[in-house]
Specification:
Largest sheet: none
Radius of gyration: 21 Å
Helix content: over 70%
Oligomer: single chain
Structural class: mainly alpha
Distance between the termini: 43 Å
Number of strands: 0
Length: 426
């Protein structure tokens, strides 16, 4: 009952316009003061401990790397490379949108950065070719989810920090899961475009053009290769790879002669703002999570689940349902920092693979980004496309179905979904 009252308090504060970080912190402090005799100094300590983590240092660095990608000319070259490969087939711009999102996901680490960068270029291009505005917005929004499924992924870094799981293992697993979802997106886009008279690219396909665009995009394509190559070889940690990504992003930007000192400073300022927003939410969400522990809510959550300890599928379904509801209400960062720690003891006490559960959480995070009222991906792309959320959602529901299938597959057939990652990790 206490947890319901606390969540309702958070929702009430959000409804009257209180920023989410403050809503979380205020709720935690109120209930800790009223229901415990813990000193306020302990709450300040938790605020600090929530972000005092070496793995979390990768978050501002990957955010900065993603910003450099946009200002340094990498975005346009990656899109042109994707266009040269599949832009000339029917519905090709939709496939290009997804492929570009794969490239962006392998560099930016966040869905917001991917949706904004891809959307600013691909949505106007799709509209020019007579694609429905809602379809353009939905495809770009769905593609942005690949930014959190394909490493380097800020949500995976956050999850690994909270759950004590190797971020490198999460990254390796995310490659295959993200690519599987991307293939599903292409299939969904095919069925949505096959009966439409969308215009095609006038330039014919040629291997010469693909080669030229590939050469131009090589410096940008090297970034994910360097990131994952360094991690897989053990030369660098995920956090250190983030620093390498920033360095390479700066070098590539100057190679393309599009990154200036002024743009570099602007990217840095923009990254600081976004980092401060994420870290403030993480810090205050940590206090709320601490309040759940201090009030015994974690134990209350475990008891109903433990009667299904011999059936992990039921536990994962129940956990997914609760996390989906949380994803509909809260930003994914809040969902992971506040709700996930409640489930970790359950995962530890059963036969659920920690990596499997981590992927379930990340996929649910992706679904939450595509479903109102949060729908952070849709808010960005519909604003660019100048279309209503309702119009975009009627297309986006098919991409959400792909994510739902991936979620169900991760629960029922993890041995197939995780086969290749396990071969590499082991």
């Amino acid at each position: 009952m206490t947890i319901i009252i606390m969540l309702l308090t958070v929702l009430l504060l959000l409804a009257i316009g209180v920023p989410i970080a403050f809503a979380l912190g205020i709720t935690a402090v109120i209930f800790l003061v009223l229901l415990t005799d813990l000193p306020l100094s302990l709450m300040l300590q938790q605020l600090y401990l929530g972000i005092n983590s070496f793995p979390l240092l990768a978050i501002p660095l990957f955010i900065f790397a993603g910003s450099l990608m946009n200002t340094g000319g990498m975005s346009l070259r990656l899109i042109n490379f994707a266009l040269s490969i599949i832009g000339t087939v029917k519905g090709g711009l939709a496939y290009v949108n997804v492929l570009t999102s794969v490239f962006f996901g392998a560099i930016t680490g966040t869905a917001a950065a991917a949706s904004a960068a891809v959307g600013q270029i691909m949505i106007p291009a799709m509209i020019e070719k007579k694609y429905d505005r809602g379809f353009a917005a939905a495809t770009t929004s769905a593609g942005s989810t690949l930014g959190i499924l394909i490493p380097p992924s800020v949500p995976m870094i956050l999850y690994g920090s909270i759950a004590g799981i190797s971020v490198a293992d999460l990254f390796i697993t995310g490659i295959f899961v993200g690519l599987a979802v991307a293939v599903g997106y292409v299939v969904a886009a095919y069925f949505m475009t096959k009966n439409q008279n969308y215009e095609m690219e006038t330039q014919k396909f040629s291997f010469k053009l693909v080669f030229e665009k590939f050469i131009a995009a090589i410096p940008a394509l090297l970034i994910p290769v360097i990131i994952m190559g360094g991690i897989l070889s053990g030369i660098v940690t995920p956090t250190e790879s983030a620093a390498v990504a920033v360095l390479v992003g700066i070098i590539v930007g100057f190679i393309y002669k599009e990154l200036t000192i002024k743009k570099l400073v602007e990217s840095l300022i923009d990254s600081v703002r976004n980092t401060a927003l994420v870290m403030f939410i993480v810090a205050t969400a940590t206090i709320l999570g601490f309040s759940f522990s201090a009030l015994g809510i974690g134990q209350q959550m475990i008891e109903p689940f433990m009667q299904f300890a011999d059936n992990p599928i039921i536990i994962m379904f129940m956990a997914s349902f609760i996390l989906l509801i949380g994803g509909f209400i809260f930003d994914g960062t809040v969902m992971v920092v506040v709700l996930v720690p409640l489930f970790l003891p359950i995962v530890a006490a059963t036969s659920i693979d920690p990596i499997q559960f981590a992927m379930i959480v990340i996929i649910v995070w992706g679904i939450g980004q595509q479903t109102p009222p949060v729908a952070s991906g849709l808010y960005i792309t519909t604003a660019i496309a100048k279309v209503s959320m309702l119009n975009a959602s009627k297309y986006n529901i098919w991409y959400i179905l792909v994510l739902a299938i991936a979620l169900i597959a991760m629960i029922f057939i993890p041995d197939i979904m995780l086969y290749l990652p396990r071969q590499i990790i082991e």
